[in-house]
UniProtKB/TrEMBL annotation:
<feature type="transmembrane region" description="Helical">
    <location>
        <begin position="16"/>
        <end position="38"/>
    </location>
</feature>
<comment type="similarity">
    <text>Belongs to the tetraspanin (TM4SF) family.</text>
</comment>
<dbReference type="InterPro" id="IPR018503">
    <property type="entry name" value="Tetraspanin_CS"/>
</dbReference>
<feature type="transmembrane region" description="Helical">
    <location>
        <begin position="188"/>
        <end position="211"/>
    </location>
</feature>
<dbReference type="Pfam" id="PF00335">
    <property type="entry name" value="Tetraspanin"/>
</dbReference>
<feature type="transmembrane region" description="Helical">
    <location>
        <begin position="45"/>
        <end position="68"/>
    </location>
</feature>
<protein>
    <recommendedName>
        <fullName>Tetraspanin</fullName>
    </recommendedName>
</protein>
<keyword id="KW-0472">Membrane</keyword>
<dbReference type="InterPro" id="IPR018499">
    <property type="entry name" value="Tetraspanin/Peripherin"/>
</dbReference>
<keyword id="KW-1133">Transmembrane helix</keyword>
<keyword id="KW-0812">Transmembrane</keyword>
<dbReference type="InterPro" id="IPR008952">
    <property type="entry name" value="Tetraspanin_EC2_sf"/>
</dbReference>
<dbReference type="InterPro" id="IPR000301">
    <property type="entry name" value="Tetraspanin_animals"/>
</dbReference>
<dbReference type="GO" id="GO:0005886">
    <property type="term" value="C:plasma membrane"/>
</dbReference>
């Protein structure tokens, strides 16, 4: 997330910071919930319930934002990826994590570029070498995927120059690949999200139940006049 926010749009930065905040809140929430349950402290259990409710509402809000702003997010993500491709440099250690992440996406989804391999022709290094090299992570040949990053040399380029059409790379752009992956795994994604929401609801119900039990016990301990 931090690598992504270095060059991302305001929307993606906000989303990344929200996820980081939710993660920190989840850790704090778990600690407070355990402490409150073990020591039977009502205020901590109430705080645990509140944190769970905030997280659940945040997840619902995030899902709605993604659904209604998906086209805007797609455009912003496209700008980020295109800029990354144009400035991709295997020797740049400052951007290595981000570049490695993109190499991983291209390798796993078997895609090249955001909309296609042609975008790689705008890379500064490849342009200076007359496109006689190509991104290894885009390759459809297993021997090029051993390293998984950087550029591979094209065999026997005509007149020392080439175009993306001469590269042994995947034709599918990663935008289409990601969309297809989401469609293929939509059931799993919805199942996981539903499972997480059910667990959070059960935690909220359990915390309320414990609070009521503690209240009942305190009431029975009060001496009658």
């Amino acid at each position: 997330l931090l690598a992504l926010t270095e060059m991302s749009s305001p929307s993606l930065k906000t989303g990344a910071y929200i996820l980081i905040g939710v993660g920190a809140l989840t850790m704090l929430m778990g600690f407070l919930g355990c402490l409150g349950a073990v020591n039977e402290i009502r205020c901590l259990l109430g705080l645990y319930f509140t944190c769970l409710m905030i997280i659940l509402l945040t997840q619902i809000a995030a899902a709605l934002v993604i659904y209604f702003q998906k086209e805007t997010l797609k455009v912003e993500l496209a700008d980020i990826v295109v800029d990354l491709i144009e400035k991709y440099d295997p020797s740049d250690e400052d951007r290595r994590n981000l570049q490695d992440a993109w190499d991983y996406v291209q390798t796993q989804i078997t895609c090249c570029g955001w909309t296609g391999a042609k975008e790689w022709e705008n890379n500064e290094i490849l342009r200076n070498k007359s496109n006689t090299e190509y991104p290894c992570s885009c390759s459809n040949r297993s021997k090029d995927l051993v390293g998984g990053r950087g550029f591979c040399k094209l065999e026997d380029p005509v007149n020392g120059t080439a175009t993306y059409a001469d590269w042994p790379v995947h034709e599918q752009g990663c935008m289409d690949g990601v969309e297809q992956w989401l469609k293929d795994n939509l059931g799993i994604i919805l199942g996981v999200c539903t499972g997480v929401a059910v667990i959070e609801l059960l935690g909220m119900i359990l915390s309320i139940s414990l609070c009521k039990n503690i209240h009942s016990e305190d009431y029975t301990k009060v001496p009658k006049s």
